[in-house]
Amino acid sequence: MSQEELFVNPGQCCSGNTDKRSRSRLGLIVTGVVGGSLVALYAVAAPFVAPALRKVCLPFVPATSAQVDNVLKVLRARSGTLVDIGSGDGRIVIAAAKHGFQASGFELNPWLVWYSRYRAWRDGVHRSTSFYISDLWKASFAPYSNVVIFGVPQMMDQLELKLSSELPITAKVVACRFPFPTWIPECTEGEGIDTVWVYDAKTFKSNLHHGLPRDTFTEKEIKPDSWS
Ligand SMILES: C[S@@+](CC[C@H](N)C(=O)[O-])C[C@H]1O[C@@H](n2cnc3c(N)ncnc32)[C@H](O)[C@@H]1O
After folding, report:
1. Do residue 25 and residue 89 come from a single domain?
2. ∠ at Cα 143 (85, 219), nearest 5°?
3. Where would you tag: which of 81, 99, 167, 210 has the fewest CB atoms within 10 A of its CB?
4. DSSP label at residue 13
5. Is 135 in the pocket of ligand 1 (CB under 6 A)?
6. The whole model's pTM is what?
């Protein structure tokens, strides 16, 4: 645009600049919103996907209400401390706290831990529950006299060794859906995918001390493909 044209029609040059500026501001806003949404989506989804990338894949599959009832049924004569290893959305910990346990959950996924704390607060059991963002393989379960685990078959032999060496002799362990490979359960409750197995530390710790081979026991056949 020549000097002359500018002199005759000065508004034309400025409105062009204003258009350009507002277009680039809109571009920045759109980039910010899209970028921010992607970062937020990644932050939420990554902790749910991460377990699948570990050596032992233990995904978030919440216990059914029949499963929770079975856990409470087999522990009805017990009290004191309880831990749910891989506590998910906190449903077992919260149900146990409502039945008088001082209950804790160890969970890798921070979103699930924050949600569990919120649920415990909403249900009025925040004083008798604790939730830790923690890797189960790095935590010690020595302080707990009742232990609940809804794991996967691939991790159960390693967990047997860990719990055998850590737990007090007075402890009971409840396995949901998948039993331990060599421990002998003292009883079971429920059927199919809702089955829970109960183990007494006195038994599995004495077998450990007597050095019985890990394949000494034959247990009920397990069907580990029943995740549904
Ligand atoms: C099968 S779900 C069981 C959830 C809960 N216990 C229930 O019964 O509803 C297993 C949970 O373990 C968590 N998890 C996976 N790997 C873990 C690890 N290394 N340490 C702690 N928690 C883990 C998963 O995020 C998932 O929430």
Report:
1. no
2. 50
3. 210
4. H
5. yes
6. 0.79
Q: Quick one: 147 and 105 in the same domain? A: yes
Model pLDDT for residues 112-153, shown as the tens digit of each residue: 999 999 999 999 999 999 999 999 999 999 999 999 999 999
Question: Which residue type, as a one-letter code, is found at position 140?
Answer: S
Answer yes or no: do 49 and 69 share one domain.
no
Structural domains in the chain (count): 2
Structural domain harbouring 194:
65-209
Q: How many angstroms separate the CA atoms of 165 and 160, rounded?
A: 9
To test ligand 1's pocket by mutation, which of 55, 56, 58, 159 has the most ligand atoms within 8 angstroms of CB? 58
Residues 6+ apart with CB under 8 A from 105: 83, 84, 87, 88, 90, 92, 93, 113, 116, 129, 130, 131, 132
CATH number, domain of 96, equals 3.40.50.150
Nearest to 133 by CA among 86, 73, 98, 69: 86
User: How many angstroms is it from 57 CA to the middle of ligand 1?
Assistant: 10
Task: Indicate whether residue 136 lines ligand 1 (CB < 6 A).
Answer: yes
